[in-house]
Amino acid sequence: MREYRRVHGESTRGGVDTPIMTANAVVSPIPASQHRTESPTAVSTMVRLVRDSFAAVEPQADQVAQYFYGMLFSIEPSAREMFPANMQVQRSRLLRALVHFVQMVDRPDDLAPFLHQLGRDHRKFGVISSHYEAVGTALIAAVKRYAGPAWTDEVERAWAEAYTIMARTMLDAAAADEGPASWPARVVDHERLGWDLAVVRVQPDHPVPYLPGQYVSVEVPQRPRLWRYLTPANAPRTDGIIEFHVRSVDNGWVSRAIVAHTNIGDTWRIGPPMGRIGVNRKKDRDILMIAGGTGVAPMRAIIEHMAQWGQNPKVHLFNGGRKRDDLYDLPHLQNIAASNPWLTVTPVVETEQGPGYEHGTLADIVTRNGPWADREVLVAGSPAMIRSTVSRMLVAGTPLDHITYDPFTLD
Ligand SMILES: Cc1cc2nc3c(=O)[nH]c(=O)nc-3n(C[C@H](O)[C@H](O)[C@H](O)COP(=O)(O)OP(=O)(O)OC[C@H]3O[C@@H](n4cnc5c(N)ncnc54)[C@H](O)[C@@H]3O)c2cc1C
Ligand code: HEM
């Protein structure tokens, strides 16, 4: 497995003691050195065996999940309190994640940076290495139970090896991190911008070392143990205050609670910063930003940060929404653009027409305005918007390695 290349600094230093994990063996102990020398053929055979056997159990996903969590909590009862009281509301997030990532071990360049961040992030649950062993055992037992004749010793070895690679990558990253596992943060402001949108400002007890463009996971007192990702919308400030833009989604457990029921003085917990979106000044390329809905948050944090520098590459931001009201941050961005000639902001609205707005989807408008082949491209928004915009840009000629987005979402 190739070594993780730092995208834009990953340290999450702080001053608080945290549970330190030791990188013990998981399920079938394979030394880390061996993963790196695994031949491509061996890895692709492993992935094929895992995919084929999972395809056989997929129609029974609910039973697999029930068996998995039942076994996990019986062999490691201490893990139960990390999960929400009502397991239905999460729709088997952990199991879905495990299965998704086990099938990606042949893409270490994509996976390893994310697993490093995830491993550090999992410290907030109080996860230690014995939990990884229990999760691996429960995962393999659950798939085996429902795989029928598709399950062989070779298949079992493939699952164990793939899981071990992931677990070890996460454990190593967690053990190497000396920063806090999470930061308590007090809500100092809650502003309703509409029935489904709120801006929340929190004051962490110590500054959270995020880089502009990164996101964090957040737990709020109204929804204990239901962690969700949110993106700081401001550049890091000396007083440490972080602004979040939260839109409630239909039937959303956490977003609706944040928008409607946050109180000044509530204490949130914030996990270590994650994500790849950011500006690498060494690349020396002009920048194209594409932001749908609250996807504007990472772009605004980056733009605010750039506005503190003397010289900048050109930045063109397409800020899109379904209706005009969805572009809630447009006046602020236009203000920044008015005094920073390197920044151009184009508002894009899907369902309404009018002067000053481009009419269409972000995918339509961005590709209509150019191939953008020479730009560094940053994309944030709903998974559907990211998918359609990135695929249209690739067809229009933007090289894939110029495009950055945070694709690892399960919803
Ligand atoms: C990298 C990243 C950064 C994020 N940053 C922000 C941010 O800054 N501000 C913000 O408001 N949200 C952000 N999100 C989305 C956020 O993490 C939650 O997924 C969202 O708030 C829904 O959580 P919930 O508990 O309310 O919904 P859930 O109870 O988890 O889901 C309820 C229903 O809503 C659907 N759903 C879940 N998420 C979405 C979504 N994003 N859009 C539409 N439908 C959805 C689910 O499929 C389900 O049917 C980010 C997500 C990721 C992956
Ligand atoms: C290789 C091993 C693992 C991988 C790849 C992994 C990955 C993930 C991912 C991607 C999520 C979902 C994050 C999100 O989008 O909300 C998640 C959630 C979670 N994981 Fe892990 N995880 C691993 C091991 C563990 C272990 C060992 C534990 C401890 C028992 C654990 C406990 C949790 C908990 C409590 C959640 C939140 C669950 C929920 O909300 O239902 N994970 N994991």
Automatic annotation (TrEMBL):
InterPro entries: Cbr1-like_FAD-bd_dom, FAD-bd_FR_type, Flavoprot_Pyr_Nucl_cyt_Rdtase, FNR_nucleotide-bd, Globin, Globin-like_sf, Globin/Proto, MRET. Its cofactor is FAD; heme b. It is an enzyme of class 1 (oxidoreductase). Its EC number is 1.14.12.17. This is nitric oxide dioxygenase. Keywords: 2Fe-2S, Heme, Iron, Iron-sulfur, Metal-binding, NAD, NADP, Oxygen transport, Transport. Residues 180-280 form the FAD-binding FR-type domain. It comes from Actinokineospora diospyrosa. The keyword Iron-sulfur applies. It catalyses: 2 nitric oxide + NADH + 2 O2 = 2 nitrate + NAD(+) + H(+); 2 nitric oxide + NADPH + 2 O2 = 2 nitrate + NADP(+) + H(+). Signal peptide: none annotated. The lineage of its organism: Bacteria, Bacillati, Actinomycetota, Actinomycetes, Pseudonocardiales. SUPFAM superfamilies: Ferredoxin reductase-like, C-terminal NADP-linked domain, Globin-like, Riboflavin synthase domain-like. In the C-terminal section; belongs to the flavoprotein pyridine nucleotide cytochrome reductase family. Belongs to the globin family. Residues 39-175 form the Globin domain.
